[in-house]
Amino acid sequence: MCKKLFLLLLTTFSFQLLFAQQNRLAGFPKGSTPKEVGRRLAYHFVDDRHDLYFAQHIHYNEVCTWNGALDYAVKVNDRKLIKLLQDKFEPFFTYEKALLPPMNHVDYNMFGSLALKLYQITKDERYRKMGLQYADTQWELPKNAKREEKAWADKGFSWQTRLWIDDMYMITVVQGEAYKVTGDRKYLDRAAKEMVMYLDELQHPNGLFYHAPDVPFYWARGDGWMAVGMPDLLRIMPQDHKDRPRIMEGYLKMMKSLKSYQRPNGMWNQLIDEPDFWPETSGTAMFTYAFIMGIQQGWLDAAEYAPAARKAWLAMISYIDSRNNVTEVCIGTGKKNDKQYYYDRPRNAGDFHGQAPYLWCAAALSGK
């Protein structure tokens, strides 16, 4: 067989295999299809009020939800929804400018990902300029930097580094979008270097992550940030990137562990490894998204992981109420070395921490 024919057959087989994998995540019952669910949640977001830090600045969980709504709108080519989401942002250039987060914290700087995503859709230079400011200042050491912040910067990491598991979404999302917009490898290399360091420092032998080094609990949403950050970064990394194998290793290790802790009903619990805890929706949606990405990219065996992702998606839908609010969302949670503390955390309906990953899943499942 000539080489060209062999390569053609190999390519054809690869496409057929990828289609078969993705087809395992299709054919959902009416009312549970990703397009239906995504539409409900995205249009609900358009009409929702801002979520602010202490009545001052846009909260990162709103940015996450906005990004998800945009991803969904683009995926299904809903031009009306794209325009509504763009219009919702427009006041930030004028009378809502004071709501823009300052560029001095990892949770604040991730706002730039939203502006950069809008630039990719609209090519409006205002978005590009704003978004890159947030991405760049994440690595520009301020004059009043603390000693620890200077130490991180001296090692080539972001001065905003904290070794909190949340950071591996907050940092990588804005640096990743900056890379997409500019093609400048520095943004990708920054994110990858941080991810490798966080994996080396924080991932446990079972593939999971404590909420904090001094808090030995596997809190679902905390682990969710890592679960989402890794595949989103891997998707944009060239195959020959030096950090790709390490990140893929960490991702696959985490996915294997998560699959073993999925509850029979398809959900994951507030503390992942505690069977007597309650099912928590934001963490479940994040893990489901990580499975979906791996299946679609061919990193995870579809025969093994697609049934788990499908079961999780169908279970998740039952937690959306008649007002299109995701229920059973753990509120914002700081660390505490007390298991009962996690069990007793209040649960909100419509909290953007939950609306966001549901939209990520809907977008990912909504076809090309």
UniProtKB/TrEMBL annotation:
Residues 1-20 form the signal peptide. Keywords: Hydrolase, Signal. One of its GO terms (biological process) is carbohydrate metabolic process. GO terms for molecular function: hydrolase activity. The keyword Disulfide bond does not apply. The keyword Transferase does not apply. This is Glycoside hydrolase family 88 protein. The lineage of its organism: Bacteria, Pseudomonadati, Bacteroidota, Chitinophagia, Chitinophagales.
